Amino acid sequence: MKDLRRYLVLKYIQYLVLSSSNAVSTLLGLLGSLYTIIILQSAKVSSKSTAVLISSLAKADILVSVSAVSEMVAWTFDVSISSTAFTSALLQNLLTANTHISCLLLSCVAFEAYLITFFPTESRHLRTVKNARLTSRIIWLLVTAECALFQTDDLLKASSTSAPTCSPCILLFQFSSTAAALLRSLSYFLGILLRIVNVYVYYKIFFSMSNR
């Protein structure tokens, strides 16, 4: 459907074109995700692997909604929710998780579009609803584990000043700090790689369709 294609374009711009999210792109993304979730419930939309990936992409914006609502409540009722180390780190990590999930799912959609364009028959056994659901679950599990590691690292850093130097938690702090730093670096370079790969994929698809 044209609406789903427009939604994908919006998401590509939000996560793979813009260097960072802003209020306008975030609001448009939330509205687009809400609308997409509604139209995917329609009987007119067939249950295909692409629809499964797009549905999971739209649901990822729930993480942004939680963060936005929390900040809005704190601002409206003058509650210092974001002042605590746990809540502040959690809201930021939820936004990071949303970005990573969205980038990975958008790359899966691009890869599927590549297979449909160049290997429609050969890839039919891969482009199934079952595989799409499995892929979405794996992405969510991996990013959830990443978010948990970041949250643990942020909490340990916040409490490091009051922790005793001989505490057995020092090893845990060092491990989580090193793992989180490596994961952040990996995520940064993976994000750049995904941008390059997505541009290449749609470049190939565009010129392939033009030649036809």
From TrEMBL:
Membrane topology: Multi-pass membrane protein
Family matches, as PROSITE patterns: G_PROTEIN_RECEP_F1_2
PANTHER family listed in its UniProt record: G-PROTEIN COUPLED RECEPTOR, GENE 5127-RELATED
Compartments it resides in: Membrane
Any one cellular-component term (Gene Ontology): plasma membrane
Domain G-protein coupled receptors family 1 profile: 32-212
Annotated SUPFAM superfamilies: Family A G protein-coupled receptor-like
Gene (name only): Cxcr3
Biological process terms in GO annotation: phospholipase C-activating G protein-coupled receptor signaling pathway; positive regulation of Rho protein signal transduction
The keyword Glycoprotein is annotated on this UniProt entry: yes
TM regions (residue ranges): 12-40, 97-119, 181-203
This protein's record includes keyword Repeat: no
Protein name: CXCR3 protein
Keywords: G-protein coupled receptor, Glycoprotein, Membrane, Receptor, Transducer, Transmembrane, Transmembrane helix
GO molecular function: G protein-coupled receptor activity
